[in-house]
Specification:
By secondary structure, the chain is mainly α. About 75% of the residues lie in helices and about 0% in strands. Helix 2 runs antiparallel to helix 8. The longest helix has 30 residues. The protein starts with a helix and ends with a helix. About 55% of the residues are buried.
């Protein structure tokens, strides 16, 4: 099993940014032919490798589609869940803070699990945990059982969140941008779809909120299938040469906390997650308080979330073609500042424009994922950087939505909360520019 982990988690891979501070050319996977360029004598056939690669693509898309419905479907039915379980307002507030907390706590475990069992096996287990959590949480009875089922699903989401960039780096080293874009686009699609169809689907299922939440276990179960095949075969795209393998084993353990880029990326990830959670949790209420109807406010939020579908595919592809990603960070930040200014000055008058601008700003998430793949040279480095940036980042994001609610309650308006949102965008731009510099965490940690 440890030998399989060397091929899955610690192989040195060629990056899409070889000329921009990425891995050296000799880090590419071994050729598929034999020593003299003839047919390989021990590896899988070309047809088998091509079939497996297609299965990986299907697995990535299905996994990404299931990384947010557990959260957004609950948000759509939160009032019904509170009434059905007799949940207090404080417990409901705690429930909205559970996702980033679970992402931070369980995401740290992902690299260790991947070293032990392989990334494909861990992602398969993560999809199974999502399926089980979504299926049991509406029916176990009581608030404690509902929280436990939610935590199980979120644990599966957390480890899969961290390992998706590792899977992309391992299987598609020359297409990090396009594959990260595909993954991010599927994630955004799953997020917006769950928010949009949960309520009408619940009505079609008889009006029971339990059925409306449990039905999302079906697509999660479908995502288990390709990953169970990949985990069983444990096939690598190509085995590295023995010398590269020995070099990888001889490398000292990466001390990720010594890297300034890793810290910058963690803070950037945390601040963009803060903005995203504030937007999902409060933007519709801002519009409603400005006189926009409830249905239109929900549609505006859906538009903001849907902006991530096309842009999540475009931005990573552009990012991998640039030596530094700072300019993209600044453009997204300026759109966010403009959107917040509009919410402050004329929330109802330019509502559609502000929704579009904030939707563009929220695309900092796929950019952060892309930079995770670009700022590390090896598969093991990507795993450590992804776990560190996401775990620390989600911890940073926990207080934001709660603080917005406190400011709104005590000030009686949205002036101070919007000022806070805009104020957080400035350090997000600053650390994003630092995280987008042309360097790798391995080089920084070795100094």
């Amino acid at each position: 099993m440890m030998g399989g982990m060397v091929s899955e988690g610690t192989r040195t891979l060629k990056s899409a940014t070889t000329n921009t501070g990425g891995p050296a050319a000799n880090d590419s996977p071994a050729p598929t032919g034999g020593p003299s360029g003839g047919p390989s004598t021990g590896g899988p056939s070309a047809a088998t490798r091509a079939w497996t690669t297609r299965l990986v693509v299907v697995g990535i898309v299905l996994a990404a589609l299931n990384l947010r419905p557990a959260i957004t479907s609950l948000g759509a039915l939160l009032e019904e869940v509170r009434d059905g379980l007799g949940m207090s307002g404080s417990v409901a507030g705690l429930l909205t803070s559970v996702p980033p907390l679970c992402f931070a706590v369980f995401g740290v475990m992902a690299p260790r699990l991947a070293r032990r069992f392989g990334p494909s096996t861990v992602v398969c287990a993560g999809m199974a945990a999502i399926t089980a959590g979504l299926l049991i949480r509406p029916y176990v009875g009581g608030t404690a059982g509902f929280l436990a089922g939610s935590a199980l699903a979120l644990m599966g989401i957390a480890v899969s969140n961290v390992l998706m960039p590792v899977i992309v780096k391992r299987w598609f080293p020359d297409r990090v941008g396009s594959m990260t874009g595909l993954y991010s686009m599927a994630l955004a699609l799953g997020t917006s779809a769950a928010a949009a169809v949960t309520v009408p689907m619940t009505g079609a299922l008889g009006g029971s909120w339990r059925s409306g939440l449990a039905v999302w276990a079906v697509p999660a179960a479908a995502a288990v299938l390709p990953w169970s095949v990949l985990a069983r075969h444990r096939e690598a795209p190509a085995d590295p040469p023995s010398r590269a393998r020995e070099t990888e084993r001889a490398r000292p353990e990466l001390r990720i906390t010594r890297s300034r880029t890793a810290w910058a990326l963690a803070v950037f990830f945390g601040l963009q997650a803060t903005a995203a959670y504030i937007t999902m949790g409060w933007m519709a209420q801002i519009f409603r308080d400005a006189g926009v109807s409830a249905s239109t406010a929900g549609l505006l939020l859906a538009v903001t979330m849907a902006m991530g579908v096309p842009l999540a595919f475009v931005i990573p592809r552009v990012a991998t073609r640039l030596p530094r990603q700072g300019p993209i960070v600044v453009v997204l930040g300026v759109c966010g500042l403009a959107g917040y200014a509009g919410l402050y000055l004329a929330p109802a008058g330019g509502a559609w424009a502000w929704a579009l601008l904030l939707g563009i700003a929220n695309c900092a998430f796929p950019l952060a994922l892309t930079m995770v793949g670009m700022r590390a040279r090896t598969g093991a480095g990507v795993a450590q950087l992804s776990a560190f940036a996401q775990s620390a980042g989600y911890l940073i994001s926990i207080p934001g939505p709660l603080l917005v609610g406190v400011l709104y309650q005590h000030s009686g308006g949205w002036g101070l909360p919007i000022a806070l949102m805009a104020g957080l965008m400035v350090p997000q731009m600053a650390v994003g520019v630092l995280a987008g510099r042309d360097r790798t965490v391995e080089d920084e940690a070795a100094r």
